[in-house]
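$ ./design --mode recover --in tokens.txt
reading tokens...
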């Protein structure tokens, strides 16, 4: 696993507003790389390369874009989180003296899709690498995003949807149950369902054309990094609103203890599923 340098932040007051900048950095530095095996497996299967024009929905801080651009793809990323998108720009766009990501890929980074984009002219691959199956309504949110994105792809283009695997194959599921228990209201994590991805594809007018499973273990340097990484996913936001950050952090740390190894690292095997569709 690629080493990550982790900043140590001062403990925030429980009632203080969420530091979205720190959370975005935690996502970029700790959590985002956990899904790198998923990105790589999809790109190998689809032979992503110079002929690929990829639109990534929920591109986060840009790791999936960076890997695709490294294979020669032209990439566009969309993410509504300006803090994550700012980190993606640092990774992908050349600086004033030419520093930065691969300029040949000509990446575009957007907070929303342009309303006036010409139909079928922008991409031949759409990826949705934010796994669904944990939060109530995440499938509905993906259907809405696809409603705006799919018209930008030509007929016969490829769309990749991703989701959490069965709870019994995901060690992190037991930790996510902390959010279920602490949160109030419907916006809480839930177990993945067998047909989540197929349901999204059907509602979005897509034709399933194959699927796969990828092992994506979550590994952290220590318990503090694990807590910060997991909270950066935003799956615990409802729990934080219902209680406070200190309570959520404490209970997440307790739930992680079964996965704490003798050397102080945290290791949780997980399986994620992807569905390949055509427009």
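writing sequence...
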């Amino acid at each position: 696993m690629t080493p990550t340098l982790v900043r140590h932040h001062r403990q925030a007051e429980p009632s203080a507003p969420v530091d979205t900048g720190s959370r975005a950095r935690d996502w970029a530095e700790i959590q985002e790389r956990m899904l790198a095996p998923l990105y790589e497996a999809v790109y190998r299967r689809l032979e992503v390369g110079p002929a690929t024009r990829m639109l990534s929905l929920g591109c986060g801080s840009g790791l999936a874009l960076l890997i695709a651009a490294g294979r020669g793809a032209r990439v566009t990323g969309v993410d509504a989180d300006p803090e994550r998108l700012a980190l993606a720009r640092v990774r992908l766009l050349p600086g004033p003296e030419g520093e930065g990501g691969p300029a040949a890929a000509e990446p575009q980074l957007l907070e929303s899709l342009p309303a006036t984009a010409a139909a079928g002219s922008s991409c031949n691959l759409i990826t949705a690498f934010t796994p669904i199956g944990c939060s109530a309504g995440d499938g509905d949110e993906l259907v809405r995003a696809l409603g705006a994105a799919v018209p930008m792809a030509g007929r016969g283009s490829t769309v990749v949807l991703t989701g959490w695997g069965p709870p019994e194959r995901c060690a992190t599921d037991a930790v996510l149950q902390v959010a279920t228990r602490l949160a109030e209201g419907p916006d809480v994590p839930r177990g993945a369902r067998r047909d989540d991805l197929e349901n999204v594809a059907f509602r979005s007018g897509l034709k399933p054309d194959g699927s796969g499973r990828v092992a994506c273990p979550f590994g952290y340097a220590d318990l503090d990094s694990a807590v910060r990484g997991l909270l950066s996913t935003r799956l615990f936001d409802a729990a934080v609103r219902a209680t406070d950050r200190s309570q959520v952090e404490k209970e997440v740390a307790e739930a992680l203890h079964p996965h704490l190894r003798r050397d102080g690292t945290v290791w949780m095997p997980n399986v994620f599923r992807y569905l390949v569709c055509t427009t």
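exit 0
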